[in-house]
Specification:
Chain lengths: ~120, ~110
């Protein structure tokens, strides 16, 4: 199993550009989520999904869109990049039991810089 | 709103010491608590997951305990080694949400 994969590993954007961060998992996990990690602020949840066709907002959803058309993929779209979105982005996935997620598995991250 | 705190923010110890890392949370109605390790520039690696019905979990030199009533978890590292140097994060999932809330981590350095 490849686990959770993310592409690209690094990306530089100019303010106003849009892009999609890719996330895929091959463990048939129902739950997938996106976090951003900033110095001194820890990991903050952007969006999450409990299954194909279902998404919901986390703590910091503004400026980001997600969709979940398949169990395997959960892309994160930046609509109009801003310098405040410079961060490291992590995707995670897990099984769900009785309506709750279990052990979370993380991807290697995407380091995004917005100029 | 669930808040997770980790103290200390950084810790530097000589090799061989036994360590305790602390994690506190404000809402005791949790479903599970998970400890992670993060090496510089890398993703998070799951270390231990404690369900709300459990008091502790062990994996090798690591032992994590959970006291829901006091809102605390501790990660005990026995006989620390330089290879244990990393940032350790705890994360809590509450019963009333699907969201995982992270602490800001403890940066551990073990020197020879």
């Amino acid at each position: 199993n490849a686990g959770v994969t993310q592409t690209p590993k690094f990306q530089v954007l100019k303010t106003g550009q849009s892009m999609t961060l890719q996330c895929a998992q091959d463990m048939n996990h129902e739950y997938m989520s996106w976090y951003r990690q900033d110095p001194g602020m820890g990991l903050r949840l952007i969006h999450y999904s409990v299954g194909a066709g279902i998404t919901d907002q986390g703590e910091v959803p503004n400026g980001y869109n997600v969709s979940r058309s398949t169990t395997e993929d959960f892309p994160l779209r930046l609509l109009s990049a801003a310098p405040s979105q410079t961060s490291v982005y992590f995707c995670a996935s897990s099984y769900r039991t009785s309506g709750f997620s279990n052990e979370q598995f993380f991807g290697p991250g995407t380091r995004l810089t917005v100029l | 709103k669930q808040e997770v705190t980790q103290i200390p923010a950084a810790l530097s110890v000589p090799e061989g010491e036994n360590l305790v890392l602390n994690c506190s949370f404000t809402d005791s109605a949790i479903y599970n608590l998970q400890w992670f390790r993060q090496d510089p520039g890398k993703g998070l690696t799951s270390l231990l997951l404690i369900q709300s019905s459990q008091r502790e979990q062990t994996s090798g030199r690591l032992n994590a305990s959970l006291d829901k009533s006091s809102g605390r978890s501790t990660l005990y590292i026995a006989a620390s080694q330089p290879g244990d140097s990393a940032t350790y994060l705890c994360a809590v999932q509450s019963y009333n949400t699907d969201k995982l809330i992270f602490g800001t981590g403890t940066r551990l350095q073990v020197f020879p």
